[in-house]
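Good day; I would like, with your permission, to put a structural problem before you. The record follows directly beneath this note:
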Amino acid sequence: MTLTGLGKESTSESGINWITAISMLLFHVGALAALFFFSWKAFFLAAFLYWVGGSLGIGMGYHRLLTHRGYKTPKWVEYFLTTCAVLSLEGGPIFWVATHRIHHQYSDKEGDPHSPRDGKWWAHVGWILVGKSMHHDTKTLSRYVPDLAKDKFHVWITKFHYVPITVLGLALLVAGGFPFVLWGMCLRTVVGLHATWLVNSATHIWGKRRFETRDDSTNSWWVALFSFGEGWHNNHHAHPVSARHGLAWYEIDLNWYGIWALSKLGLARDVYRYELSVPQKANEKLPTVPVEDVAPETETETDLVSA
C-alpha cells in the first residue's frame, strides 16, 4: 500500500466536508444524550478511554512521538500508541502529522491550517469542517511525512483509521449497552476533540508567554488540564523537539509523566527535554527564540538533555 492509495474526502461546491460534518454532529448529539444515561461504570469507562485516546494516543503518540520525534520507542510501542490515537476520532497518523508539521512551519502565518488570525471559530473547528486542510494530496504528504510514508503500518491504519474505533464501539455495545456507547464513545470523544481543538485555538489567543516566538502561542494551564499537558503551547513552540512541555515544576504535564514512565520501563529511549536554566521572574524580559529553532525542518535543540 502506498500514499496514492489513501483516499481524500470530497467536498461539496460550498467546500463543506460532509462526512466529517455529519460525523461530528452525530457524536455531539450522542454526547448530549449520554447525560441522560448516567452510571458510574459508564463514567469511569469514559474517563479511562479519554486518557487512552487523548494522552497515550494524541499527546504521547501522534504529537510528541510521531510528529516531533521527541523520543524513540520499539515499533510495537509506537504502533500501540498510534492505535490508541485513532480511537480519538482525529483521523489517521499520516494526515494528522502532516497537518501539524505544516502548522509549525507556518504558525500564525499564511499557510497555517488553523490560525486564530483567520478567526477563532475557524481555528477551533471550522478548518476541519470546511476546506482541504485535513485532506492533503500525495505530493504534500510525501514532503511532510516521508518517515511515516515508508511505514506500511502507518499507511494502512491511515487508510482504515475507522476500524479500531468501530470495533471498540461494538465491544462497548455488547459489554454495557447504549450507556457504554454514549459515554465511552460519544461523550469522551467529543470532550477529547474539543481539548485538541482548544490547543489550536485558545492557546494562540489567551494565556502567558514565556518565550518570544515568531507566532502567537501561549501557555494555558486550563487547556493543559484538559489535554494532559498540551496546553503549555508556548513552551512547545519555542522548543518543539522537547518531549517535556511543562517546563516548570508547577506546569502539570501528564503526557510527559507518561513518557518518563516509559523510559523507566525501558520502553522509551533518546528522550529529549528542554531545561529552564534560570528561573524566570514575572517582570523579566521574554527570551527570544530564533526562527530556526522553531521551524520543523531545523528543530535542533542545543539545550536538551536526556531524560
